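User: Structure please.
Assistant: Input sequence and predicted structure:
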Amino acid sequence: MKKSDITREIAKKRGITHRKARLIVDQVFQAMSEALTRGEKVEIRGLGTFKIRKKPSRFVKDPRTGVELFIKERYVPTFKMGKLMKNHLNSKGK
């Protein structure tokens, strides 16, 4: 599912214009992005939790050439699925 699909679903289910739905989706994603940038976690009950994790700098070896490369420390987003979502997904095949 893409962002445009989410927008279309919201517009259809709420009976609002596509433009208004897109504005809502953009604002939600912007708020989530800003919270993660500040180092906060974003918890959406029933879905899961988004966090930023710091990966330390390290040396890696290029598998093709064997040359050792240095990768600087960086921050990466992580997602941990919530219990309700996990149960929902695992009950699909039954």
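The CA atoms of residues 50 and 79 lie 5 Å apart.
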